[in-house]
Amino acid sequence: MKRSLLILLLALAMVLTFAACGGSDEPADDAAADENGTEDVADNGEAEEPEENVLEDAVNDYFANLPEDNHMIGEEEFVEKVKAGEDMVILDIRGAESYEEAHVQGAVNLPWGTTAIADAVETIPTDKPVYLYCVTGQTAGQAVATLQTAGIDVKSVRYGMLRGIQTVEGHEAILTDEPAEMPEGQTIEVAEEIKTALQEFYANLATTENANNKINSEDAAPLIEAGDENYAVLSVRQEADYAENHIEGAINIPWGAGMQENFDQLPKDKTIITYCYSGQTAGQTVGGLRLLGYDAISLDSGMGTPATGDAGWMNGGFPTVSE
Question: Is residue 322 part of a domain?
Answer without folding.
Answer: no
